[in-house]
Amino acid sequence: MLNIVLFGPPGAGKGTQSEKLIEKYKLVHLSTGDILRSEIAAGTELGMKAKKLMDAGMLVPDEVVIGMIDSKLDTNKNAIGFIFDGFPRTIKQAEALDKLLGEKGTSITMMLALEAEKEELIKRLLNRGKDSGRADDQDTHIIEKRIEEYNNKTTPLKDYYAKQNKLKVIKGVGGIENIFQKLCEAIDNN
Ligand code: AMP
Question: Does the beta carbon of 54 sit less than 6 angstroms from any atom of ligand 1?
């Protein structure tokens, strides 16, 4: 299987690049942010609880997102691989993912980490917020909180995967196509 963790701060381009990668490599896209937003849209209890945290730019509890990924892995038993987008975001989530994949006889192939400057991220997110209507993309304070959560809780994951020799860093600047080419090269040269 080809199992990719697409990593990077909010606004790095994970969603855009995931769409292109799933088309090319026929992978199943698992975005915990998307799953949470569909729970909110469906008005579930989980969604309502998560919304409060998401609107404040904070992470939802590990158990919640781990449970969601667990069930999505089960419902996609025939997948040839997965792109994990926005997951894992903490060491605990990464450990749980290794365990879940291990139980299925597979593992993470690589982490592709997209990097971009904070100013660029804020600019992109505010722009996206105009179309997406996402509350967490429309307020600079919430965006800053999300970037802070990323810096505190999520960046340690780079070390986690580097220790397993699975980290590949890609500069997330330049055109969408250009970044996509760099991601494909990293995958194809693996
Ligand atoms: P995203 O669409 O990936 O930017 O996620 C939007 C929001 O959903 C985040 O700011 C968090 O509040 C929540 N979220 C998404 N994925 C996770 C995760 N793996 N762990 C914790 N919270 C998450």
Answer: yes
142 Cα: distance to centroid of ligand 1 (angstroms): 13
- For residue range 100-113, what is the model confidence (pLDDT) as tens digits? 999 999 999 999 99
Tally Cβ neighbours within 10 Å of residue 39: 19
CA of 54 to the centre of ligand 1 (A): 7
Atom of ligand 1 nearest to the CA of 61: 21
What range defines the domain where residue 133 resides?
2-27+79-179
Beta bridge partner(s), residue 111: 5, 167
36 lines ligand 1 (CB under 6 A): yes
**What is the radius of gyration, based on Cα positions, of the chain?**
16
CB 3 within 8 A of CB 107: yes
Stated pTM of the model: 0.96
> Looking at the 3D structure of the chain, how many domains does it have?
1
Question: Could you tell me if residue 8 is inside a domain?
Answer: yes
